[in-house]
Specification:
Layout: E1 3-7, E2 14-18, H1 25-38, E3 50-51, H2 55-62, E4 65-70, E5 76-80, H3 89-114, H4 121-134, E6 137-140, H5 145-164, H6 172-190, H7 199-203, H8 215-246
Parallel strand pairs: 2-3, 5-6
Antiparallel strand pairs: 1-2, 4-5
Length: about 250
């Protein structure tokens, strides 16, 4: 297991830390704090102390997690490290998508009630924010996992809702419309207010999320875009589907 020598620039004190990954700033601060508590005089001869990683650190590292901390806004954050056995591109993308879904769906009922203006509505908005901060967000990891995680966060529930909202014997047009509504509702549910970016923010238009929008309005703007984007994408793809249906098939 590799060792790392760290130095306090103010006193010149050196410590040796041992672990699978380089120490974080928090690890360094904790190590010096522990050392100075047991050695209150910073002028004592320099000493190298072997700080072995705790069981918790080893357990987190075994699943590709570098550490868990709280940021300046009070948001719990899981910082991903690297472990080739348990934290590949797919695994990390799924973790990020799962975090987004949990934070979005978990706080949705309270965002809905906060919009009613009924007694306790203001407190409900606070509860929704607390839920989003309590469920950890996932950061770091392999390149591309942020984008892949966002795609999974919206696409998987959206496609599932599209199928679930259809009726067995209904006309195709009715099923298509109900499927779009299901997908829109899914996007509303999994969106995380305060972090969501809509197509309106990229292309302009009424669905652009504004800093002054309340949580439910942000969700509704994102969800409403499915009603326009879905038919537009289908219109672009329809010629290719038509050509594909005309290609000869070989039966085996």
């Amino acid at each position: 297991m590799p060792s790392y020598i760290i130095t306090d620039p103010e006193t010149g004190t050196k410590l040796k830390l041992t672990g699978d990954t380089p120490p974080t700033e928090k690890d360094i601060d904790d190590a010096f704090k522990s050392y100075y508590e047991s050695n209150p005089d910073p002028k004592v001869p320099e000493e190298i102390v072997d700080e072995k990683p705790s069981f918790k650190d080893l357990a987190l590292a075994s699943v590709g997690i570098q550490n868990i901390q709280k940021d300046d806004q009070g948001q719990n954050v899981i910082n991903l490290g690297y472990n080739p056995m348990t934290s590949g591109l797919l695994e990390q993308s799924i973790m990020k998508a799962g975090s987004g879904i949990a934070r979005g769906v978990g706080s949705l009922p309270f965002d809905l009630y906060a919009k009613t203006g009924l007694p306790g509505a203001e407190g409900s908005a606070g509860i929704a924010d607390t839920i989003r901060k309590t469920v950890p967000t996932i950061k770091g990891g392999l390149p591309g996992t942020d984008t892949a995680g966002s795609v999974i966060q919206y696409a998987v529930p959206g496609m599932t809702a599209f199928k679930a909202a259809q009726f067995a014997n209904a006309p195709k047009a009715i099923n298509y419309a109900s499927g779009l509504l299901g997908s829109a509702a899914s996007d509303v549910a999994v969106s995380v207010p305060g972090e969501t970016t809509s197509l309106g923010n990229l292309l302009g238009g009424p669905t652009a999320v504004q800093p002054t929008d309340d949580a439910l309005t942000q969700r509704l703007k994102v969800g409403s875009e499915v009603l326009a984007a879905g038919p537009a994408v289908d219109a672009v793809l329809s010629p290719f589907r038509f050509l594909g249906s005309k290609l000869p098939t070989k039966k085996i």
